[in-house]
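Re-run with default settings, no changes from the original entry. Doing this only to confirm the output is reproducible before filing.
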Amino acid sequence: MSHRRLSFFLPLLLIISFISLPLKAADDGGIANLRQTSKAFASVAKKVSPSVVFIQVESIQQGRAVTPFQSPFGDDLFRRFFGEQFPGLPNHRQRQPERRVTGQGSGFVFKTDKGILSDTSYILTNNHVVEGANKIRVTFQDGREFEADITGADPKSDIAILEIKDSEHPALPMGNSADLEVGEWVVAVGNPFGLSHTLTVGVVSAKVRSGLGINDYEDFIQTDAAINPGNSGGPLLNLDGEVVGINTAIFSRSGGYMGVGFAIPVNLAKNIADQLIDSGEVTRGYLGIVIQNMTPELADSFDIDEKKGILVAQVSEDSPAEKAGLKVGDLIVRYQGEKVTEVAEFRNRVALTAPGNRASLTVIRDGKRKVINVKIGNLEDGQVVASSSTETADELGFSVQTLTPDLARQFNAKPGRGVVVTEVQPNSVAGMSGLRPGTVILQVNQMEVNSTTDFQRAIDKSRSNNRVLMLVSDRGMSRYVVLSW
């Protein structure tokens, strides 16, 4: 090789060697980071698995009553010829034998009492895992088995507490689900398909998931950590080994894992569990209002800048909210000094406030902020929720009629207060907004309408901007609706 060619290749070889060194170092650093992450997962498994249990339940399912023979000619004909004792007649329906049904799920030691008078472990799980069980058996990782009793259960939140006579297995530490962030690593431990103490890993996909129809009180953590049948009741943990949620449900078209799982936040579960252990039942706070999320359209109709908050659509008579001065149309933006943006979140926070305590509500009314102090009630004390001529809003596609006493009784409304929708045209603005025959319209643009004349006058005033804000009541529940055309 000539001196000239050597002088060309030597710098090139040096450049390549210098490039390869950092690349190799980067590869080594990445592998080291992965090893460190895997060690973190392994550490969580070692720390929590001894406190996670495999739950097996047995229940007795009553047999159905069946008729062994059905006459093609009618029962009366057979009674005439064979009498009332013919075995195929309805009064001789035979009951199938009882069936023993088994199920399984997961749980974990939530709290322990150890001492001379107590040697008990409390296990937190889902209510749907143990509901209706005649016999419950829990198995720890070390193979020890115990018969368990139900301390208390709350179907509305799907939380149940079991107790066993043992305190050797430590309770898992509780984290703070409010501190969770989307994208954070989480670990699920449970017994999917009966495979004891299985660990899966994922991230927090979303928070404050509600409106799923799973529980009455919903505020789910969504995760892509694999959750399958048998995982219900098991813990969802952060990398410190602290419980941040209770694995509860999956979204699936196949019945198995599809990347979308839901867990009850531990802050909600802990409050319920503590009450079940202390008293065996759950008490919830009560305001007595019907609420809905604020939307940009509603904000424009109310002519306010706030685009987030909880809009009051109905205030129950003689409720804590009415006594405190809360009014329909108030926009709640803070509860106990903290922002509120979602109905599910606000509802849960009120429910978790002990009855008898006072709470502060920051509301926007007529464009001004106002703080209202309310004494929280007990949910068990109460539950939320002229002329007969007809007027038609042609451009909106529906007709209304003044509420007569007969119509008011029929639609659970007050005579002379509001107008009732009598007809809705298919594919109209009204129909697409959810209005239907029987819906009672109480206000139009925040003005009460107590007759069809009031209603038509209010609609006429709205034609200039092609938008109308209505407060409607459907089956006793109120909400705001914005119609645009």
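The two ends are 85 Å apart (CA to CA). Residues 3-48 form the longest helix (46 residues).
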